[in-house]
């Protein structure tokens, strides 16, 4: 998206066009207060903000920072050439500080493919954005610090990706080596883990089906860097990425309750979000008490299991999320 800002004579007003949703419309109040409280001057003119391309709907608060920068450039407080080949995103607080937004990693990757050389991101998101190579990532704490950086008063040091610890030993909730007995089942799970096969365990309550399933990720091979980036992108879009974990290096284990809806399993919503099968990408999806799940919920699993991806179609468009998961199910006889 490109943010265009124009100032003209007339009664002071602030108009945002380009199919913005409520969160984008509310950015007018946040931007105005943030600029004022950051010690800068909000122009008392007719201000028009266009979010291009206008045919696509815009959602979320990530447009606050680019709108503020466009406003400052249009009013002559910063130079437009300082923003060339630069992507900026972030939510503004009323005091001018920049807050965390979701989906930074895939946006930074897209910026690199589109020829951008740097990105301005919130400090909380700098770690995940720095995972993209050949891209200068500037962590922004507040609008004031960013303006000082652009003007050369107090430069901000670019964020660096944390080195991947090859010797890191992941910690699992249940470890396969701690399970005693059930040699036949453990052998079957080892074969399934080696080949990425799906598993159905049937046995009486208390036999250890859930424990065995929860311990399965501990014998799966460690994710490659490309697999880790795939998983991290999904969790970034779903806003489930921990602030202290810019890169997810352990395989996901998802265990939804049997009351889950089909939209919660495959994804959906007015603005489609990844479901449990996408959150289990490159990992394990565990369905305990399989017969208790609704028929429609089980039916929607068929295509993602075959195609390794799921496509969610809405009137506003369609989105495709990856879903290469290993299905493990348990049931009573």
Report what the structure shows.
This protein has 333 residues and is an alpha/beta fold. The chain folds into two domains: 2-150, Ribosomal Protein S5, domain 2 (2-Layer Sandwich), CATH 3.30.230; 176-331, P-loop containing nucleotide triphosphate hydrolases (Rossmann fold, 3-Layer(aba) Sandwich). The chain has 13 helices and 16 strands. The chain has helices spanning 22-25, 27-37, 64-74, 104-113, 126-129, 143-150, 183-195, 209-215, 225-237, 262-266, 276-279, 295-299, 302-307, and strands at residues 2-8, 13-17, 46-52, 86-88, 91-92, 98-99, 118-122, 136-140, 199-202, 253-254, 267-268, 273-274, 284-287, 309-314, 317-322, 326-331. It has a four-stranded parallel sheet with strand order 9-16-13-10. It is elongated. It starts with a strand and ends with a strand.
Q: Give the rounded overall mean pLDDT.
A: 92
Helix run count: 13
User: Helices and strands, in N-to-C order?
Assistant: EEHHEHEEEHEHEHHEHHEHEEHEHHEEE
Chain oligomer state: single chain
Taking all Cα atoms into account, the compactness measure Rg is 24 Å
- Rough outline: elongated
Major sheet characteristics:
4 strands, parallel
**% residues in beta strands:** 15-25%
The amount of helix comes to: 25-40%
How many domains, as an integer?
Answer: 2
Total number of strands: 16
What is the fold-level CATH name, i.e. the topology of the largest domain? Rossmann fold
Name the CATH architecture of the largest domain: 3-Layer(aba) Sandwich
Strand order of the largest sheet: 9-16-13-10
Identify the CATH homologous superfamily of the largest domain: P-loop containing nucleotide triphosphate hydrolases
Q: Spans of 5+ residues with little confidence (pLDDT < 50)?
A: none
At the first level of CATH, the class of the largest domain is Alpha Beta
């Amino acid at each position: 998206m490109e943010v265009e800002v124009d100032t003209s004579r007339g009664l002071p007003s602030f108009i945002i066009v380009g199919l913005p949703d409520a969160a984008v419309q509310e950015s007018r109040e946040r931007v105005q207060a943030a600029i004022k409280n950051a010690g800068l001057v909000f122009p008392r003119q007719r201000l028009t903000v266009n979010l291009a391309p206008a045919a696509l709907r815009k959602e979320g608060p990530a447009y606050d920072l680019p709108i503020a920068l466009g406003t400052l450039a249009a009013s002559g407080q910063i130079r437009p050439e300082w923003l060339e080949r630069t992507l900026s995103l972030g939510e503004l607080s009323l005091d001018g500080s920049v807050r965390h937004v979701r989906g930074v990693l895939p946006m930074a990757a897209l910026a690199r493919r589109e020829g951008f050389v740097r990105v301005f991101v919130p400090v909380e998101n700098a770690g995940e954005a720095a995972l993209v190579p050949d891209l200068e990532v500037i962590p922004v704490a507040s609008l004031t610090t960013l303006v000082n950086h652009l003007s050369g008063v107090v430069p901000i040091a670019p964020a660096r990706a944390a080195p991947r610890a090859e010797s890191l030993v992941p910690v699992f909730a249940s470890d396969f080596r701690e399970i005693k007995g059930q040699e036949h089942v453990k052998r079957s799970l080892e074969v399934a883990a080696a080949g990425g096969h799906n598993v159905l365990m049937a046995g009486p309550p208390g036999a250890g089906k859930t424990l065995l399933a929860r311990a399965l990720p501990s014998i799966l091979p460690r994710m490659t860097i490309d697999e880790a980036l795939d998983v991290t992108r999904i969790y970034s879009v779903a806003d489930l990425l921990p602030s202290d974990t810019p890169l997810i290096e352990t395989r996901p284990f998802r265990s939804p309750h049997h009351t889950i809806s089909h939209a919660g399993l495959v994804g959906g919503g007015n603005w489609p979000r990844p479901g449990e099968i996408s959150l289990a990408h490159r990992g394990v999806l565990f369905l305990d008490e399989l017969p208790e799940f609704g028929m429609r919920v089980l039916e929607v699993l068929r295509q993602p299991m075959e195609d390794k991806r799921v496509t969610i179609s809405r009137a506003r468009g369609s989105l495709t999320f990856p879903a290469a998961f290993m299905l493990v199910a348990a049931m009573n006889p």
